[in-house]
Amino acid sequence: MNPGFKFILYARRCVMLVCALVSLAMIASVPAAAQPARYEGPDRIQRLIDGARREGIVNVYSSMVDKDLRRLAAEFEKKYAVKVNVWRSGKNKVLQRVLAEAQAGRHEVDVVHNPAPEMEALVREKLLLEVRSPVQAELIPGALPAHRMWAGPRIYIFVQAFNTNKVRREELPKAWSDLLNPRWKGRLAIEGKEQEWFYTLVQEMGEEKGLAFFRDLVATNGLSIRMGNALLNNMVVAGEVPMAITLYSYLPEKSKKAGAPIDWIALSPIIVYTDGIGVTKKAAHPHAAVLFYEFMLSDGQTLMAEMDHVITNRRHATSLDKFQLKFIDVGAVLDGYARWSQIFDETINRRSSTAVAAPASGR
């Protein structure tokens, strides 16, 4: 054979060998969690179960109400024989802990469950993993971002809750402008961390008109500030706050079913957003993490509905059809978060005469 051809063949073999080694190196460099998160074969669930049982535990950081979170964890443990270690706090503290641990090189958390804006912040920090799952097709529009690095198990619908002993039904507002009526002086409260809701509602009203409305509302009738949705709901039940203009619908709905003197309305536009559940890129228990993610979007949906949460499964979320929902644009919120936090503070907090703080409540 011509020596030149021999050299070419030899060079080609070398190139092929190098390419093969590079491919193996690339596969080895993919985080361990990537494989269970993206595997879509017919035996996917069984692989997840087998892997999760080998790993034995899953570490979950969540801002969900503790009692409901514990029930979900117990059902997961019962079904899969995998221990769930739960750390629960307010949404900001969950976000701060995940960021701090990642910066310190500690990768203790496997699954994060927090509202969508905080989850999107973790996406921007490149701390979450894309997950491919058939259960994602069961979710309503708005519950799954294109990057698939988190998915929303629940919807937060912002409603206006009132104490039925303190507010007559004929008094109830039919539009936001009705709250400027003097009858509402000293009777209104707002949760003190709802910048995302505030931003979206103001944009829907038109920024100039929306800001003018809130300035007039605070100047005319005042807004009591309460830190924590659960606290604010309890104060409406107790009659200390006749009407809350921001509450997640599931809180007054749950209290109403328990016989408390509370009900709610939803003024248009109805602002909503989802929470999110995501798997961390460097999860120490990747199979268990993806299995818990899968559970929250499947069996967990039924359990959460029983606990009066508004879930995102298409087949079970028919109650949403009666609403015209406006989803918060979490990307826009994050881009302008510093500005709108300042505007919220100046418009609501500084102009309001009362501010009552409480320990961070679950989302």
Give the helix/strand class: alpha/beta
Shape: globular
CATH architecture of the largest domain: 3-Layer(aba) Sandwich
Largest sheet: 12 strands, mixed
* Count of separate structural domains: 2
Number of helices: 14
| Cα Rg | 25 Å
Low-confidence stretches: 1-12, 14-33, 353-362
Range of helix content: 40-55%
**What is the CATH top level name of the largest domain?**
Alpha Beta
Fourth-tier CATH superfamily name of the largest domain: Periplasmic binding protein-like II
Question: For the terminal residues, how far apart are their CA atoms?
Answer: 75 Å
- The averaged pLDDT comes out at 87
CATH fold title of the largest domain: D-Maltodextrin-Binding Protein, domain 2
H-E order? HHHEHEHEHEEHHEHEHEEHHEEHHE
Give the tally of β-strands: 12
Strand content: 15-25%
Structure write-up:
The chain is an alpha/beta fold and 363 residues long. It has 2 domains: 32-153 and 274-311, D-Maltodextrin-Binding Protein, domain 2; 156-273 and 318-356, Periplasmic binding protein-like II (D-Maltodextrin-Binding Protein, domain 2, 3-Layer(aba) Sandwich), CATH 3.40.190. It is built from 14 helices and 12 strands. It has helices at residues 3-29, 34-38, 44-55, 66-80, 91-103, 116-124, 195-205, 207-220, 229-238, 250-257, 286-296, 299-306, 330-335, 337-349; strands at 57-62, 83-88, 111-115, 154-163, 188-191, 224-226, 243-248, 262-265, 270-279, 310-311, 325-327, 354-356. Strands 1, 2, 3, 4, 5, 6, 7, 8, 9, 10, 11 and 12 form a 12-stranded mixed β-sheet that branches. Helix 3 (44-55) packs across helix 11. The radius of gyration is 25 Å and the shape is globular. It starts with a helix and ends in a 7-residue tail after the last strand.
